[in-house]
Amino acid sequence: MKMKSLLAERKYVIAAVLLVLCMAAYWSYNSFKDSGKLPVVMNAPDFTIPDLDGKPVQYSRISGDVHMIEFMFTSCPDICPTTTYNFVQIQEQLKKQSLFGSSKVNFLAITFDPKNDTPKVLRNYASKLGMDLSGWTILRGEEAETINLAKKFGISVSKMPDGSFVHTNTSLLLLDGQQRVRKIYKMGEDMDNQVIMKDIIALQDEAAK
């Protein structure tokens, strides 16, 4: 009788422990699911590309809790200027919250076309579209080097017979201060500035904790 009672008691204890473990697992899963954190897509490769003054810029040394990287070329007829225009709208929103530039949020533009995108052309492009260079880094490296870098980010690039470039529409990257890609966006008219702004703020808040 005592043996049966002991076995029954053990069953209740085991059942209670299993119930607690299941509840803990369920709570942990939902806490993770509802945390709102952006997942890590990939670790970004480090790279060094000259800026408009010809000075080598190593990505891992660029300050900021959040980075947005755009691969582009100035002779692009539609997607690139539309993307940069949207970037500038986000830039202005970040300025209002004192989050643009310095140790906060920084933007990078990397051209595929160094032959035509001279420093003068890129500066004129930036001025025309309203890019505030206090929070932008414009990079201009060797063509093959830049195409190879884009491929490391999962971006497919092809040079056309007329000298222009065709690349995947998902050439817009959000990275945290630990050099990790946290989200990839479509460019041009497919951009959702509100979503991007929300994601930037989420990463900025994450870095501040």
TrEMBL record:
Keywords, alphabetical: Copper, Lipoprotein
PROSITE patterns on file: THIOREDOXIN_2
One protein family per Pfam: SCO1-SenC
Keyword rRNA processing applies: no
SUPFAM superfamilies found in the cross-reference section: Thioredoxin-like (SSF52833)
Keyword Lipoprotein annotated: yes
InterPro entries, sorted: SCO1/SenC, Thioredoxin-like_sf, Thioredoxin_domain
Top-rank taxon, per record: Bacteria
Stated family: Belongs to the SCO1/2 family.
Protein name: Lipoprotein
